Structures are given as C-alpha cells and as structure tokens.
Request: fold
Amino acid sequence: MHPKQTLSVDAMGGDDAPGIVIDGVAEFLSARPDLSVLLHGDEALLAPLVAAKPAMAGRVTVLHAAEKITSDMKPSQALRRGKGTSMWNAVEAVKDGRAGASVSAGNTGALMAISMLALRKMEGVHRPAMTAVWPTLRGRTIILDVGANVEADAQQLVTFAIMGEAFARATLGIARPTVGLLNIGSEEMKGHEEVREAHEWLRAAGLNIDYRGFIEGDDISAGEVDVVVTDGFTGNVALKTGEGVARMLASRMRDAFTENLVSKAGAALAMGGLKKLRSLMDPSNVNGGVLLGLGGISVKSHGGADARGFARACEMAADLAGSDFQTEIAANLARIGTGGVAAE
Amino acid sequence: MHPKQTLSVDAMGGDDAPGIVIDGVAEFLSARPDLSVLLHGDEALLAPLVAAKPAMAGRVTVLHAAEKITSDMKPSQALRRGKGTSMWNAVEAVKDGRAGASVSAGNTGALMAISMLALRKMEGVHRPAMTAVWPTLRGRTIILDVGANVEADAQQLVTFAIMGEAFARATLGIARPTVGLLNIGSEEMKGHEEVREAHEWLRAAGLNIDYRGFIEGDDISAGEVDVVVTDGFTGNVALKTGEGVARMLASRMRDAFTENLVSKAGAALAMGGLKKLRSLMDPSNVNGGVLLGLGGISVKSHGGADARGFARACEMAADLAGSDFQTEIAANLARIGTGGVAAE
Reply:
C-alpha cells in the first residue's frame, strides 16, 4: 500500500493503552476502508487484541517494540533512552517513508522531542508550533502555538500563520481559511511589539493567505476566524482557560439538572438538544494536536482520550497525509523569500 | 457624612447612562443604608431622575458637570480635554477626600488615565494593575492584571500578587486568600523567565501571603486559588477567552432547549436549577474592575452592565473604601524593602 495511505501508530502511549488505542484504530479503519496501519508495541500483548477485531484483518501490521516511553520521562531522557520504544518506532516509520503520518497518545514532551529529532524542521521554519482544534459557534477553529514554544517573535508568528492556514485547509476542509492574530485590542496601537510587527508583515508580505487582522480572546469561540495565531504561552493559557470554563459550566449544568425530581424530569425531556450540547463539549470530538513545521506528520492524541477520540486523531493524521499541506506551507514560506521569514 | 461612607459616581458613563446608573445607585443605596453618593453629570437631566427615586432622598448629591468623556476618546485626549467632565470630577472627589471611592462605567482607557493622573501611584508601585472577578466552581476568584499593562517583569508580578491578595480580602471577604501564578506547566522549569523569577521571589521574600505556586489556565475556573497573578496581555486574553466560551455555551444551551416542544417543556421543568446556572453565567454578578496600586480607589463598571451590575460595582467600591486594603498593600510592599520590589 502507498505510504500516504498508511498510518504509523504508537499502541503503548496514553492513559488506557493499548486497549483504547486498539479500539480507536478499529473504529478509524471501519470508516476509512482505503487505509492501513502499522501498530508499534508489545507484540505478545497486541496480537490477540488485533485478532479479535474483524475491522483490522489484513490491514494492521503489528511491529514489535519491547520498550515504551513512560508518562514521567523528560524530553531529554526520551531522546537518550527512547530508541526502540513504540513511540520512537512509530515516528521513525514516517521518517523512513513507510507511513504518511504517525499518531501517539503518549508523553507530549517526549513525542515533540522525538518528532523534531527524527523528522527535522522544514526549511524556513525556525520553531515548530503545536496546534489545537477549538469548537466554536460556527464550527471549528485551529489555534497555534499552544505550547511548543514559550515565546515567539514576529517572524515566528508569521510562520505560524502560514502553517496554520495550510493545516486548516487540510483538516477542516475549508478552501481558503481566514487567519487572525490574537491581541488584547482591535486598535492597532495595542499589544506586544512582536504582535504589531507580525500584523504589518502579514498585511504587507504578499502571502497567499486571507489575513483578517487582530482578534481578541472572545472572538475565538465566536468563530471569527478559522485560524488563531499566537505565541505558545498565550495559546496554552487560552486553551486551558477555555477548557476550564467549559468544565465548570458542564458541572454546574449537571447540578442544575439533578437538583430535584422535577428538574431531572425536565432534563430527561430536553435530552435531544442536550445530547448535541454534550457532543459539542466532548473533547474527544476535537482530539488531535500536530507539531507543525516538521519534515513529516506526527499527531498527538490526548492521553486521556477515549476510543472515539483516538479515532479522530487518526482521521486527522490521514487527512494530513493525504493532503498537500506541506508543499503549500513551503510555497508560502518561499513567497517571503530567504531574506524574510525563512531566515533568522 | 464620613468620606469613607461616600461614593463618587460618574452618572454619564456607560452604554445606557444615566438611566442605568441611577437605577443601579438606587439599588445599591437600598441595600446599604449607611452610605451616600455624590452624583456627577448633567444636573438638568439628573435632578428629576433622582427625585423619582425614594431610596435616594437626602442621600444623593447631584454635582453638575457640563461635559462628559465619550466612548471613542483616546486616553491622551481625555487627559487634555477631560477636566470638568463627569468622569474627571468623580475621580477628583476621591483625590480631594470628599469620597472614599469612585465608580464609572465610561471609557476604560480614559478612566485609567484620569485615575492615574489624579490619584497617583502608591509608593513602591511601578505599574498599576486592572482586576477582574471570575466565577469559579468554588466561588469567586480575582485575576490581575487584565490589561492595564502589556508586559510585566518579575517584580511587577510580585507587586500584583501583593495588591491582589489585599484586594481579595477586602472584596471577597476571605481572611487569608490563596495566591497562584499563571503559567503553562506546573513543573518549575516551564514558562517565561519573568514568571519563574517572580515564583522564586514570592516563595522566598517572607511576604505575609499564602502563595501556592504555579497554576494553569484550567485551574482558574476550578477555583484552585483566590487570586490569579499574570501579566496584562495574558490576563486579558484569558478573561476574554473565558467570556467567549461561556457565551458560546449559553447560546448552544438556548438552542438545545428551544429545539422542539418537548425540549421546551423539559427546559420549563428544569427552570429552578437553570436559573442558578444563568445567574452564575450572568456577568452583572461579577461586575467591577479596579485599577490597583493608586493612592485612591477608582472602580470601573462594565459599559454594558445593567442596573444590578452597576449596583455590584458600587458595592465593591464601598467594600474597598471601608477596608484597610491600601495599608495592607503598603505593609507587604515594605516587607520587600526599598531594595526589592519597591524600587525599579
């Protein structure tokens, strides 16, 4: 099978591995009959699990890895001792061209370090950026960087915009995604110097991007733009703050509906609409982060995601592997020229 | 009446001034029979409105101001042309010792500029910080800075912690508020250098503060600490992002409940619990921001707040005016010593 149609999966990463991973891959393969999977991990453990899944028959190859990356391992340890682990082998299959993308629910820092080492940075990218998918009033929005870097200068923000735009086209299926720069005021005088400089750059650089200017925090959930660009510190705080608010309100909503018998009856009647709301608030529907700016695709699934969440991360990996997003990024980086964003 | 028991109110600021302001002040005075109000604005407009409110009889003094600060005025314009406006006069009454605190729902930037000019910075405070109140799973949390400054170095973050802690005691009624520093990871190696430095400082400085270390974005809504300390860029993004998520979920919840007749009936039955949820999500319950670090108290009400929201901002101003929070801040700043946070 063509490598673009093959995913490389770390079966041993995540809170409930390998069970959740196997279930997720099976769900993914049922929906995508054109694809196959390389499954890295403890063969003795995995073989019977795979054999029990009819959807996997003839489409999953188990590749033995005796060791795994643990959740408490530091990135530096993962680089020193990680060779031969299921995570390492999953990423290496992408590097070697045996798969179009890898998926792991394991240790984020370790996955970023191993992916950077194995897949290397794209030419013209100084710092890769981590993406997240954000449910909005209008659909879904991509936000980056959500924590790969602590700071970002103007040219890194411009690079993030280029990468995020191509990523949104590949994964959200939007032909021409809109891009906004996160700031604290819509007037041009506000905000960090880096943000204002990136703003001028994005307006003037002649990139093939639909750049819409500054947005503020509340515009993210409103779905004002398809791609929100920010530095890794701000993006990580925004993402986790948003998750926290959603979790608090979900908890309060449960309280409201279980307060007494009458409210319980009401909740039962309103169930149809509430199911949609729950589905919107369900993190497994938007699972999957990608470290953009590397020479290959490495998708991070949330460590606590369920089988459906893991299947979503696999879908994202497959969408990216089957798209032209890497060449689109390269084309826009070239538009800036080697004297611009590409060089530092 | 003692100035501490007198509030100075800008009657002309905010989207629906002066009507909302009059209603809010009346609601506030009904709940606080020990207090009185100086009301600044167009006397011809205000006098009949005040006369129509029995709660205001003998407790509200209308002070004529012919001009007002408009919402599109820049801070620099407000400083040049603002003298004699209702906002200016409201703040000046605090400076002159005629009132214990001022409240305005007008132009934020103008109010900050006028307040800084009139009330000046406290000794030892290099940059004032804007507060916001955040509803959490456990109650309410104070977050600062939410936008008075774009950046903050380590010693400014320490000053914010000192000011926020005293502010939380005065307004939340918590004897010993807990304080956390917003960061992107709980390991000590993560985050900006400024944040890590402030962390060491807060642990080592011998301040009379219950400092709990780093927190992450999702800890805010969980109510992990009573005071969240961060720079103005990050704080503003976090606040607006949280508001955006709450607004999106409220909108989706309305959709869920009005989808069909059955869900409408369910919503009607569950109404008791839902009312509590609505009240939690109602911004007027947590209205009122204060620019901390000045020589007097100037409270900003949200420009779109309703009468109850404005009344809440007045309550906050009265709580602060009646507390020792300014002297508590001065005491903790002195603990650092003039060679530490106080000097720059």
Chain B touches chain A through 61 residues (CB under 8 Å). The first strand of chain B starts at residue 6 and ends at 10. The radius of gyration of chain B is 21 Å. Residues 338-344 of chain B have pLDDT under 50 and may be disordered.
